[in-house]
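Reopening: Tyr recombinase domain-containing protein still failing for me.
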Amino acid sequence: MNWSEWLSGDAQDNSTKLGLFASFCWRYGWRGGQRGNKYTTIQLKLASIRWYHKRYVGIELQHAPDFDVLMRGIRRLSGPLAKKQPITPAFLRLLHRRLDFSRSRHRLLWGAVLIGYFFLLRRSEYLLVESGRHNYCLAAANAYFADRRGVRVPFEAAVAVTIGLAGAKNDQFGRGAWRTMHATGDPVLCPMKALYHLLRARLALQRTDTPYLCVDLSAQEVSRTFKWLASIIGVAPRNYATHSVRIGGATALLSGKADGLAIKLLGRWMSNSYEDYPLLTAEATFGLSSRMI
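Support: Ran it again with your exact input. Result attached.
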C-alpha cells in the first residue's frame, strides 16, 4: 500500500491504520498460529505503538471516535481472560517426587522453581525467556545465605536467603530491590534448600562462572515440566506455565493470612494490581462464615 512505517498527526488516518492492525491481531494474532489475540493483548500492542511514536517521532497519536467503537466491539467479542492456575505446595511436593536429583539439570530446575515461588519472581527475573536474557535477571553474586538480618554468612550459620534484583520490567529507573526469606523448617519446601540445590547444580554442571544464578534454564523448559506433571496428575496442562509460580506464591501468602502490604512489597508490585494474582482457596475462607452470623 506504500504506507509509511510511521503514523501521522491525522486522527482519521491513524484510526484507519490502527484499526486495521487491531482487526488483524484480533483475527489472526501475530505469530502465524492463526489464533487471534484477546482485547488486553491488543491494548498492550497499541500502547507500545503510541509510546514508540512519542519517543522517536515526538508525536502524541490521536484517533477518531470510530476507532473507539471498533475497540469496544473487539472487547465485547473477546473471550474471558483465562488465568493460569497457581503452583500449590502440594503440586511442588509432587514435582519433587518426580524429579531425579542425581541429574544436575533436575536439581537446577527445582532450585529455580523454589526461588521463584518464595520470592514471587517474574519469569524474566530468573529465567531465560524468548527474547533473551534481561539485564535485571537474578545474578549469582546477588544471592547468598544470610542471618536473620539479611547479612551474608556461611551456609552452616545461615537461617535465611537474601537476593538482590537489579531492576524489573516495572522498575524503569533501575532502583532494584533486596529481599530476604527465612528458613521454613520444611525438609522440601524451603528457600535455603532452593539456593543450596542451585549452587550444587552449578557446580555439577561446571557453570560456576556463569553470572546468572539459574545458568541457562529457560522459561520454556520450566513450563514444559509443569505441563508434563499436570498431565500425569490428570489436570489440564494448559492451565500451568511459568506465571503459575508467581501466582502460587502470592496465593499461598494470602491463604496464610499474610498482610496485603507484605505481599505487595515482596512481589515488588507498584500498584494494587497484585490483588488480581492470588486465587481464593478454601483455606483462605476458613472462619469467614462464622463472622457472618
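Residues 160 and 183 are 5 Å apart (CA to CA). If you still see a failure, please send the error message rather than a screenshot.
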